[in-house]
């Protein structure tokens, strides 16, 4: 795999290329928003439906001005002030400079400032980058360079930033509806957002309508079947299963068992890697219980990804 230095990665992107780069959530597959063939290449590489829009990544607040008429909007400023750089993407009206290829024809654009030094330096050198997660559609998002290579082989240029610290995709928050709406739960919780906005935030599920196009598709799923463990009864572990359990402390040495010791942050950062490991090891099934502690900021995101992986 061509691992690239920061200068090389920026050079490739500025020359009209596509490069995978690290963020704190998951690796992204980045292209400049003014390079339409590179944007086309992203959809082609991922096998992504054209009606699923991309998030635009910025490295400083001045970049907002070009992208949205809401660059001075009080809600945008308040959220950016508290959560950026960080795992929150906000959906706001777009300026005409943002191409249809990025927004899938929507009049809105999702924007976030990632909290990773290499991502921020890269974007300073290239300008705003459109980037979906750097996985093939339907696969778990990549949280390690090795995952990007698993999905795309040796051809793709990659900037190595080590393992992603958050490990689940960003919260997507629509600010254009009357009441702000979480379209995809992520590293920033509804409660945290409500505290900053000083008003209630709704979630897609409450309304029974799916407004974020990407959430329509089966996602985040390993090839290994995922089985939810709901009750507390004694667990009969089928042969060759991987059990992901809140009980014990982490121990890589026990075969077929991963205990995260109730640490939701740790589970989030490890989840997709464990899913992919299970595939590589040829596990028969992954057994995992949905998180219980609703007061934890990662609760909604973990619950969402685990249930989606189980295809519920
Ligand atoms: O953490 C992340 O957000 C990662 C890293 C690379 O930043 N990116 C990521 O991108 O997860 P992707 O393309 O895998 O997911 C973007 C989600 C999709 O569900 C998409 O439908 C939604 O954001 N989205 C993008 N633009 C939108 C818009 N204008 N309105 C509603 N939803 C939008
Ligand atoms: Mg994705």
Query: What low-confidence regions span 5 or more consecutive residues with pLDDT below 50?
Result: none
Spatial order of the strands forming the largest sheet: 7-1-2-6-3-5-4-8-9-10
| Average pLDDT over all residues | 93
Report the helical percentage. Answer: 25-40%
Distance between the termini: 35 Å
Instruction: Give the assembly state of these chains.
Output: single chain
Estimate what percentage of residues fall within beta strands: 15-25%
Distinct small molecules bound, one entry per kind: threonylcarbamoyladenylate, magnesium ion
Rg measurement, Å: 19 Å
Strand segment count: 14
Major sheet details:
10 strands, mixed
SS-derived structural category: alpha/beta
Number of helices: 11
Q: Write down the secondary-structure element order.
A: HEEHEHHEHEHEHEEEHEHEEEHEH
Indicate the overall shape: globular
Describe the structure.
The protein is α/β, with parallel strands linked by helices and 312 residues long. Helices cover 32% and strands 16% of the residues. The protein has a 10-stranded mixed sheet, sandwiched between helices. A hairpin with a 6-residue loop joins strand 1 and strand 2. Helix 1 runs parallel beside helix 6. It is globular, with a radius of gyration of 19 Å. The model has no long low-confidence stretch (mean pLDDT 93). It binds threonylcarbamoyladenylate and magnesium ion.
